[in-house]
């Protein structure tokens, strides 16, 4: 069973951002399912975490159970889908605030698909000059195809092209989460579902920074 986490920063209900996130996750689930694997998808609406995010940013000792749940889910995820509305030509402040609260190693090696929504296609490049640098900085493995969906694309040829891009992006994420069928299990690292494999840091537990005594002494002979 693969774990897929979806982060969506839409503010309205219904939300075009959530709709895009659902389309991306459904396409990914379908692709992985066709390869004989199950998928557990967990969705986090950042607008529901807004209060805790504000507390976390202004008081590092604040109790934030729902935010902590999201951090723990990401730490054991096999894949991540992150979607934001475009604000002022970039990602939203709420979206950035969430990733600012994560441990610097929280996304290490995590296969990630990025997407955004906006009123027009004029801001489509924000995927490459805003979102991709953010996730590269956090050491995530971002798939080549990002998805930008504007409200004026629905029912048009551009909308049909977006649907095809969604399928392509989902296949790229599935490749990283599951791996080619001819790959020997346990050798790829990325996408491994072995429970003994190390988990990414949440920044919540002191034990995450604990180094076993045997490891500290590794290589020392006593001479």
UniProtKB/TrEMBL annotation:
Gene3D superfamilies: 3.40.50.360
Entry keyword Flavoprotein: yes
This protein's UniProt keywords: Flavoprotein, FMN, Oxidoreductase
GO molecular function, one term: oxidoreductase activity
Matching InterPro entries: CE1759_FMN_reduct, Flavoprotein-like_sf, FMN_Rdtase-like_dom, NAD(P)H-dep_FMN_reductase
Region: Disordered, residue numbers: 184-207
Protein source organism: Corynebacterium phoceense
Name this polypeptide is given: Oxidoreductase
Residue ranges constituting the NADPH-dependent FMN reductase-like domain according to the UniProt record: 4-148
Signal peptide: none
């Amino acid at each position: 069973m693969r774990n897929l986490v979806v982060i969506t920063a839409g503010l309205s209900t219904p939300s075009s951002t959530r709709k895009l996130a659902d389309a991306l996750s459904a396409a990914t689930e379908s692709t992985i399912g066709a390869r004989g694997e199950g998928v557990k998808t967990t969705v986090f609406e950042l607008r529901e975490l807004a209060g805790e995010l504000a507390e976390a940013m202004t008081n590092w000792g604040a109790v934030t159970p729902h935010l902590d749940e999201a951090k723990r889910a990401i730490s054991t995820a096999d894949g991540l889908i992150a979607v934001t509305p475009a604000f002022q030509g970039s990602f939203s402040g709420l979206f950035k605030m969430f990733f600012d609260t994560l441990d610097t190693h929280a996304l290490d090696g995590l296969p990630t698909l990025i997407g955004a929504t906006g009123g027009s296609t004029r801001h489509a490049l924000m995927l490459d000059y805003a979102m991709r640098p953010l996730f590269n900085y956090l050491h995530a493995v971002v798939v080549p195809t990002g998805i930008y969906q504007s409200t004026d694309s629905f029912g048009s040829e551009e909308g049909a092209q977006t649907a095809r891009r969604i399928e392509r992006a989902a296949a790229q994420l599935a490749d990283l989460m599951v791996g080619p069928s001819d790959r020997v299990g346990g050798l790829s690292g990325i996408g491994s579902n072995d429970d003994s494999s190390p988990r990414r840091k949440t920044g919540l537990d002191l034990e995450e920074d604990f180094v076993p005594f045997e490891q500290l002494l590794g290589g020392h002979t006593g001479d």
